[in-house]
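Re: [ENG-882] Designed sequences occasionally contain unexpected residues at chain ends

Forwarding the minimal case from QA. Structure tokens:
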């Protein structure tokens, strides 16, 4: 968690630097009672509102490439294991029983390369991080450096038993958005394929007998994962869903067909 907070702080600072090089999407016009004619990015707005401060929101319609550091598409949701098309685990995978409301997925992007076609459509290739945290129910330990996914039954009552993976995520995104409304917000419909490269796996256990224990290994997680994702939202808030089409674990025949589905909230489109 400390590592995640540190990354969030760095990305937030980087976003501020990147934003200085971005085109302005809004302008604040100071005016007296009456009408005001303002122009932003070759687009004109005539406003007859008699309030003294009028914020006119407009986004650039000019096509072109852009790239840089960012902090965007922050996903926070739940993960569900799908066992050969079923949400119920098969007998050979019962040792992976998990607490549904404590099994989570977190991810965000930190760099992107984009091309805007017009004011309503752009596509971009981005890179970021993706964590899946499985909160195991049983008092087991997933073993390191095994030819297949292997566990040990323990005589310890674990208060926390978390089995997690970290991936470098690389989504190719198609982003459609409506025109901005009076409040400056727009609806987004975002989808595309996402690939992931394994950075590592982790087991974290907390018990009265052994205190806090951590172990790092690849734990037979698949080295590369892929699947479609979808985000729908308004302004900077929405929902997401993604499904990884290949197996969660490789070279482990008994886990063949075990896949990961995640859904939840998405911020900062």
């Amino acid at each position: 968690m400390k590592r995640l907070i540190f990354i969030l702080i760095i990305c937030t600072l980087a976003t501020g630097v990147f934003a200085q090089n971005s085109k302005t999407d809004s302008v604040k016009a100071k005016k007296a009672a009456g009408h005001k004619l303002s122009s932003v990015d070759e687009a004109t707005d005539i406003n007859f509102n008699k309030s003294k401060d009028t914020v006119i929101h407009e986004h650039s319609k000019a096509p072109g490439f852009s790239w840089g550091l960012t902090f965007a598409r922050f996903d926070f949701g739940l993960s569900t294991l799908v066992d050969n098309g079923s949400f119920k685990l098969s007998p050979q995978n019962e040792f992976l029983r998990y607490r549904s409301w404590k099994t989570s997925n977190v991810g965000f992007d930190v760099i992107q390369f984009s091309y805007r076609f017009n004011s309503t459509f752009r596509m971009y290739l981005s890179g970021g991080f993706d964590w899946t945290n499985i909160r195991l129910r049983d008092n087991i330990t997933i073993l390191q450096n095994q030819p297949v996914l292997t566990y040990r039954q323990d005589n310890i009552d674990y208060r926390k038993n978390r089995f997690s993976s970290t991936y470098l995520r690389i989504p190719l995104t198609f982003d459609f958005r409506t025109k901005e409304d009076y409040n400056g917000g727009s609806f987004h419909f975002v989808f595309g394929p996402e690939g992931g490269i394994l950075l590592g796996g982790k087991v974290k256990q907390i018990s009265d007998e052994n205190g806090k224990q951590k172990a790092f290994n690849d734990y037979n997680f698949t080295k590369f994962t892929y699947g479609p994702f979808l985000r729908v939202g308004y302004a900077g808030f929405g929902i997401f869903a993604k499904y990884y089409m290949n197996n969660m674990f490789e070279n482990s025949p008994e886990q063949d067909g075990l896949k990961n589905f995640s859904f939840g909230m998405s911020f900062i489109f």
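QA comment: On inspection the terminal residues look reasonable. Residues 2-19 form the longest helix (18 residues). Proposing we downgrade this to a documentation issue.
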